[in-house]
Amino acid sequence: MSELILQALYSGVLQGGSYALIALGLALVFGTMKVINLAHGEFVLLAAYIAYMVESSLGLSPLFAIPLALVLVCLCAVLAYFLVSLIRKDRELNSLILTYGIGIILTNAVLLIWSADVRTTSSAWLQDAVVVGPFYSMRSELAFFALSAILMAVLWWWLSRSWYGRAVRAVSSNRNAAKLMGINPRTTEIVSFVVAGILASFAGVAIFSYGVIQPELGHALTVKAFIITVLAGIGSIPGVMVGGLLLGIAEALTVTLASSALQELVGMALFLLVLFVLPNGLFGAAARRG
Q: Into how many domains does the chain fold?
C-alpha cells in the first residue's frame, strides 16, 4: 500500500508540473490586466490538437508541433487581447463574458475540425516507460515536467531581471505610475498575452503527449488554472508551482485511494478550503508582507 501511495505522489508531482505551466499564463495576464482569461484553457487545447494534427497528418512526433503551436496560439492570444482592450467600462466583468465567448468559439471550432473523438498520441518513444528508482512514468511526463521547471525558472528570471519583465510588474502594481515612468501599458499587456500563449503552447503539446484530449477539456483546464492561481496567491511564480503540485498530488491520491469520479471534486474542495483559511493564497501579498 505504501508503494502505491508513493507512486501516486510521484505521478501527482509530474502532473502538477503541467498544471502549473497552464496556470502561469492565466496568472500572468490577471496580474497585468486584472483580467481572468476564461479562454486560456482553450488556447492550451488548441495547441494539443495542433500536436495531434502534426502527428496524424504528417507522421511526425508531437514535439515537432511546438513551433506551429507557438505561432497559432500566440496569434489567438493577441487577437483576444485586442478584443479585450476594446472594453472601456467594467473591464473585469465584461472581459469574463468576452473571453468565455472566445473559449466557446474555440471549443466549437475544434469540434468542427477534429470531431468529438478522444485523441491520444501513438508515439512509442513518448509513451515508453522510464524507471526512476522505484517509480514509473512515461518518458513524456518526465521530459515535460523538466521543461515546465525550466520555463518557470526562465519566466521568474525574465520578470525580475529583464526590462520588459519589470515593466510588466510595474503595470500590474500601478498602471498610472508606470505611465509616468515612460512605460507603455498597452505594449506590456500584449507581451503578457504573448507569454501566456507561449506557455499554453508548451502545455498543450505536453498534455497530448502523455494524456487524452477531447473538445470539452479546455474548460476543465481553465478551472484548474484558476484554482491554482487562487492557491498560489496573485503575483507568486513559486506559489503557482506549489499550487500546481498540490493539485496534481491531491488528484493522484484521490484516484488511487478513492475513485477517479472524485478527481475533479477534490480540486474544488481544495480551492474552497484555501479561500476560507488563506484568502490571499499560500504565497499571497499578505503572507509576503508578514
A: 1
Which residue is associated with the grid cell 480540486? Answer: 267
Per-block average pLDDT, block size 10, for the chain (290 residues)? 86 91 88 84 96 93 94 95 88 88 94 92 89 87 92 89 84 82 86 93 94 91 88 74 90 87 84 78 53
* Residue 174, CB-side half-sphere exposure with 13 Å CA sphere: 6
For residues 54 and 62, the answer to whether their CB atoms sit within 8 Å is: yes
pTM score, whole prediction: 0.90
Instruction: Specify if 290 maps to a domain.
Output: no
| All three cell numbers of 225 | 488554472
91-114 helix and 66-85 helix, angle to the nearest 10 degrees: 140
Q: What are phi and psi of 135, to 5 degrees?
A: -105, 150
Structural domain including 87 reads 2-282
Res 235: pLDDT: 60
Q: Residue 255: give its domain's CATH number.
A: 1.10.3470
How distant is the alpha carbon of residue 122 from its chain centre? 24
